[in-house]
Amino acid sequence: MRKKQFKAESQKLLDMMINSIYTHKEIFLREIISNSSDAIDKLCYTAMNAGDTSISRSDRRIHIHADKENRTLTVSDNGIGMDQEDLENNLGVIARSGSLNFKKDAGESEDMDIIGQFGVGFYSAFMVADEVSVITRKYGGDGAWMWKSAGADGYTVEPTAKEEVGTDIIIHIKPDGEEESYSEYLETYRLRNLIKKYSDYIRYPIVLDAEKTRKVDVPDSDEPKYETYIEEETVNSMIPLWQRNKDEVTQEELNEFYKDKFFDMKDPALTIRVDVDGSISYKALLFIPSATPMGYYTKEYQKGLELYSSGVMIMERCEDLIPEHFRFVKGVVDSRDLSLNISRELLQHNRQLRTIAANIEKKIRQELKKLQDNEREKYEKFWESFGLQLKYGIVSEYGANRDVLKDLLMYYSSRENKLQSLKEYVEQMPEEQKYIYFAVGESVSMLDNLPQAEQLKDKGWSILYMTDEVDEFVVNMLGEYEGKQFKSVNDKDLGVEDEEEKKDTELKEEENKVMLDYLRDCLDGKVTAVRLSHKLKSHPVCLTADGEVSLEMEKYFSTIPGDGPDIKAQRVLELNPTHKAFYMLLDAWQLDKDRCARLGELLYDQALLIAGLKVENPARLTELMWEML
Ligand code: ADP
């Protein structure tokens, strides 16, 4: 029989499993059982849709048998089974797309990560096995098949005999090594514990062939004699976690459930339980991951909650249950008011579902707000992972969700040196401060040095530093918060200026109009105006923009690939009329116009640098600097 090779990616994953240093090898059983449970779900679902009444839910079970002599652990289910093609497709390659694209070489920590992130499933058996066989027969198919692999050198698939539809996974347990023992996975007490710990909520009975001992009477002997025998024992309680009373379920159980079901290595950051009894009754168990899942901000990520009707899964990923801005939330929803065989199309237009979705959105918002109010550190971690998502939520759908989300926003406050909510910012505004000031740029440290912010800082007013590309759109979409307008530090008029000073500057600008226009013309289309500014204190220049498009927006649009519209900001070079540099300009204007132009050029380049923009010709800048020195 010719051995087939695993697909390259699977090979890598397999090698990792075989040589695994992962300390939680025990999770392999949970993975195998969870596959069995899924297979039974699939069978019930398929049979129901086909109108096949011969398959009854109550006959479904997962059976576990350990054979110490042969060192095998067999997990059997009467689920949907697999045909030859399924075996090739499911066990010859990694099902979950791209699992391994993320990792180049398997180091220790990555080893952990991949198991956590993707729940490697079936392959995890190779952490404890030196050979795995799968004997399976598919519902509606003909014939049975055996898949077999000792890991590294590929696998075989051949016909075999099996009467009942379903799958047996036969795990040949590795011999005990010097450092590690594997025999424990053949012991009843260990298996029982593992099932209880990880698979208690599985809705089908997990029947363990438990090894028990009993005393036997031996006639005419005082020596007690014991014999071992096998007795079937249903180990799991089968009640889904979300159906159990709140106080009956520990956070640890919830964490385990989450990690198992949603393939995360870390405990969730937040668990939300919803129990609604009303015109529509439902229970929901929701989780917010503690870190951004890999590929979260890509198209590959799919949102959705699992949908159940009285404990029976009717949809694996119901997208309509969760709004886009909370798409990081994972979990299950179970309602007895939903019909079991409702079709997907119908579900989409289902009124009950819409009501549930609306409630869930409200609940998530509430819980996040609570976290923000009471557990700031945790909220900041959440914000780090999913803040960007909330910002997108504000700008998308023409701002339809801004009121749901605006209180959840956090921005870095220049005065407090930490993240603040808009509410906190507004509450701390001195009475004479009219606006919510913000600055958008690459980093907090860059923004903290913006010349145009100096005046505000001198007054002791706080500026919100925004460092995501989407931030400016967020501000535009919000317009105001609690009646306070947002104002960019780049704005011509910050609303702090002394009226006298302002007049002064205006006068000076009038006086020097010819020179300023000359400088603008020398800059040859790079700026639409050169102006004097009353905003600047110790700095000679800054760059701002007139009109709708800001410098940050220009930067953002320039990163969009393709040949979209070339959106440019109308740049304005602002000069500080009280700075030495300005007097130098005035002198040059009298004595040497060329020098004046070169000074203008130099100041423009400096303004670019401060604004975090690229200098168009760095060599020219160096030349100019030496010339002026
Ligand atoms: P996952 O379960 O996450 O998809 P696995 O590697 O655990 O990944 O399993 C790969 C696939 O093999 C499953 O999606 C399923 O189609 C199939 N499979 C695994 N175990 C069984 C089983 N006991 N019965 C039927 N199909 C199974």
Q: Mind telling me the C-alpha Rg?
A: 34 Å
**Whole-number count of domains:** 4
Level-1 CATH class name of the largest domain: Alpha Beta
What percentage of the residues does DSSP assign to strands (E)? 15-25%
Largest sheet properties:
8 strands, mixed
Which small compounds were modeled alongside the protein?
adenosine-5'-diphosphate
What share of the residues lie within helices? 25-40%
CATH level 4 superfamily of the largest domain: Histidine kinase-like ATPase, C-terminal domain
The CATH topology of the largest domain corresponds to Heat Shock Protein 90
Average pLDDT score: 87
Helix count equals 20
Global geometry? elongated
List keywords for this structure.
binds adenosine-5'-diphosphate; 36% helix; 629 residues; Heat Shock Protein 90; alpha+beta; Rossmann fold; 20 helices; elongated; Ribosomal Protein S5, domain 2
Quick summary of this structure?
The chain is α+β, with helices and mostly antiparallel strands and 629 residues long. It is built from 20 helices and 22 strands.
Question: Helices, strands, pairings?
Answer:
Layout: H1 8-18, H2 27-49, E1 62-67, E2 72-77, H3 84-91, H4 108-118, E3 129-137, E4 144-149, E5 155-160, E6 166-173, H5 188-199, E7 206-216, E8 225-234, H6 251-262, E9 270-276, E10 282-288, E11 305-309, E12 312-318, E13 330-334, H7 344-348, H8 351-374, H9 376-395, H10 402-405, E14 411-413, E15 418-420, H11 422-427, E16 436-440, H12 444-447, H13 454-458, E17 463-466, H14 471-478, E18 480-481, E19 484-488, H15 499-511, H16 513-522, E20 529-532, E21 541-546, H17 551-559, E22 570-575, H18 580-591, H19 593-610, H20 618-628
Parallel strand pairs: 1-7, 11-13, 16-17, 16-19, 20-22
Antiparallel strand pairs: 1-2, 2-6, 3-4, 3-6, 4-5, 7-8, 9-10, 10-13, 11-12, 14-15, 14-17, 18-19, 21-22
Residues 31, 35-36, 39, 77, 79-82, 90-91, 95-96, 121-123, 167 line the site of adenosine-5'-diphosphate.
